[in-house]
Amino acid sequence: MELKNLNQLEKATSSSQTELVRMGICLLFIAGIILYTSVQMQGIEQGYMLIIAAMIGGYMAINIGANDVANNVGPAVGSKALTLTGALLIAAFFEAAGAIIAGGDVVGTIKKGIIDPGAISDTDVFIWLMMAALLAGAIWLNLATYLGAPVSTTHSIVGGVLGAGIAAGGFGIANWGKMGAIAASWVISPVLGGLIAALFLYIIKRTVMTNSDMLKAAKRVVPLLIMIMVWAFSTYLIMKGLKKIWKPGIEIATLTGLAIAIGSWFLTSPMVSKKSDAIKANNILEEKEGVNSLFTVPLIIAAALLSFAHGANDVANAIGPLAAINEAILSDGIVTKASIPLWVMLVGALGIAIGLILFGPKLIRTVGTEITELDKTRAFCVAMAAAITVIIASQLGLPVSSTHIAVGGVFGVGFLREYLKTSYASQLHTIADKHDGSEREQIEKYLANFKNASVEEMARMLKQLKKREADVFLSKSERKRLKRVYKDELVKRSALMKIAAAWIITVPASGLLAALIFFTIRGIMAS
What we know:
The chain is mainly alpha-helical. The protein has one domain. Helices cover 79% and strands 1% of the residues. The chain has 18 helices and two strands. The longest helix is centred in the N-terminal third of the chain and has 38 residues.
């Protein structure tokens, strides 16, 4: 056997062994759930149903960690503010902390009010419905993770509840108005996130990156941007992440967040100034890289805070139906609100952390590197967009998805870069069109450098070009050819199409799957 074939065989064997280790850890986690719930449910009628539901809840939590958490840390990893290992550890810790500390005391049993619980009178049917919804949502997330598509876990469980609900009570059981709002969020979430992220990136480019002295401009602008970030995240966490501890209104949350943000400005302004001066004095980095480095710490903090808030809010997607089944079995009835026992919360928190560490890297790479190139400045804008969009949507009553917002933000900064690069090329054509053909060799050399320049470098080159207009010439045919060359796809269209398709089919796919699972469970239990 050739050495090349031996190496390929060794790599394949190593990969298989890694997968077996991952599956073994997941099975140990599920086995632990079975053991604990078996002890707790002794002597309780239908206790076996809760054991099965707890297993499914653990499976769901693992898949949430594998798929959804990537949105919080993916941009930080893609920009190299965090290593993959560092991101996994930070996200796992803060996701679990958010779920346990601020995950809420109660959870709605009918997720988002999308079906009418009054249409279900049989407790057994209600339990089967919740089990089917939970399992369908988990399977769909598992498939999406395998395909490398970041999807909404909220929409996955919404689709599961809708599909199982219709299977149990007919089409009249569904709240179609609420489903219409959720469908609208497929567009609202990514567009709003993308626009806000692009707006912040444009502001940074105009105020810092195109300045003749970037570091001097950064000393003034970066502390203000960090202050806005602290304001957004403080308000976001007070409203969404600390609801178990404190429930203020939007006015109090905003004013409290503003006070914290102003305090952060006094703290960060001298730090940014000192670091900028050090970079400039010692020539440690190029100006652009120096400005990027100023966003490293804010990005790490943003990733941690997003993970905490995500754990506090989205753990309900894993444990909501499980808490509902637990309450239904213990009280022998259907409830619209269910208390969350500590063991149920731990299933969600630990499952998310395990799923993230074992299977999260694939989606983290997708969000961080496979959509568009991210540096620390762009990743910072995505994090800002995630927090601000959730606050705006919450006050407008829009059912947005944190996944859609974050991924939309990544697309937003990518498309802005495309627009600016094309726009700069068009400016060059306009300027060069005014001159004669005596300096062809000079303009060709200049355009070769322009083609390889970054967006920021292109802006500076165009300014220089405009000052010496009489020295250059570009013919009409050459302009047309160059326009095609410069219209680079800085956003991968294949990634856009794959993710958009996954978003659109999430609710119907998990709904159909849940209906099939419900009919299967009912058939087994009725026989």
